[in-house]
Structure prediction request, 263 residues.
Amino acid sequence: MLKVGLIQQHLSCGTVGRDIRLYGTVTSTNDVLKELAKAGAPEGTVVIADEQTAGHGRLKKSWFSPPGVNLYASVLFRPAVPLREVPGFSFITSLAAADAIALEGFSPAIKWPNDVLVDKKKVAGSLAECASSGRRVDFVILGVGVNVNVAPAALRAALGEAARAAGSLGEAAGREIDRNVFAANFLNLLDKWASVFAAQGLAAILDAWRDRDILTGRRVQVRGEGKADEGRVLGVDREGYLVLRDPRGARRRVLTGEIRLAD
Ligand code: BTN
Prediction:
């Protein structure tokens, strides 16, 4: 069972997690935290839920969020940065999730922009959302969903074919993972990477992120809202965009989309 006291036992005293709100069932932890943020909740407030009925991810996809097995968490930041720097926040979430997963003994990889994989299967995803007034950032919400102990059969029943690309930590480890310890590790690491981001900027984050990147050098297909793009990944540029060499030899910057490996 998730318990605030058990999470706090493993928490170092940073900004992230100074107020943890634990819920049974919510629509989406990002949506609950958005309301708390609008009502003035301080930076570092965390919303965790045991189950989500309308968990969502990038590209308007839903996030399967069954009760009692996984981590669904959202964290509030109130950064004094220009709006153009907000996309950098999504990289600190996937880095913290990957590092927390590494603490369980895995060698996680990150697939741009924010999928965390273990044994080539997606086990975690993150969603950064932002509210602004003009060019001023009011708040940023970083949400993470981690398949901690969900059973493969439950993934198959919920996701169908797509379950082939999804996994869980418990399945990969062959043992149950302690969700309270995992949640605390994630929050500690998010606090650490948020401090690095604030002190050293996106370059320092991307340096660490590139160590876990699995796409560089691979041939990929990008499926966005319009036509599909194809190319070999050259890397991630200093603003965090994916850079491809397309079949005609031109460099292309990818801003968003779903990436599929093509080799
Ligand atoms: C993705 O891979 O597309 C991102 C998935 C992000 C899911 C998490 S679960 C906690 C938080 N609440 C949401 O509704 N979404 C994020």
Notes: Residues 28-30, 52, 55-58, 61, 63, 72, 74, 115, 125-127, 143-145 surround biotin (CB under 6 Å). The helical segments are 4-9, 29-38, 89-103, 152-159, 169-173, 179-200, 202-210. The mean pLDDT is 95.
